[in-house]
Hints:
- This protein is α+β, with helices and mostly antiparallel strands.
- The chain has helices at 35-46, 79-115; strands spanning 16-22, 25-31, 51-58, 65-72.
- The chain has a single domain, classed as Gyrase A, domain 2, CATH 3.30.1360.10.
- The longest helix has 37 residues, at 79-115.
- The two termini are 29 Å apart.
Amino acid sequence: MQATEMDQPDLQTLPVQADGTDGNCVTFVLHDEDHTLGNSLRYMVMKNPDVEFCGYCITHPSESKINFRIQTRGSLPAVEPFRKGLNDLMGVCQHVLNTFEKSMKEYRAQREEEMQ
C-alpha cells in the first residue's frame, strides 16, 4: 500500500500555532501530542544541517501539548525543516508499515503451507 497525495496531511490543518520574533527561530505548539511525536520529529529535524537548534518540552503532565522549537542558520525559515521533518517521519512510518505488512503476509503464507 503506497501513500497517496490524499494520505498526506496538510500542514495547515494540523493543530499547530507558531510564535517567534523572526522566521528562523520559531516555537510551534502541537496540541494533543506527546513524547511519541516530539522525540521522533526532533530526531528527523536535527538531521537537517541547516538546523542550529531543535528541542521540545511538554508544558505540564496533565496537558497534552508540546512546545517544539526550531532555530535555523541563515535565512532558512524554521517552517521548512519542520515541514520536511514531518514528511520524512511519515515516510519512515510508511516504510515500517509496509515492511511489517509484507512480513505478516510471508508468515501467514508459511503457516498455511505448513498446515497442508
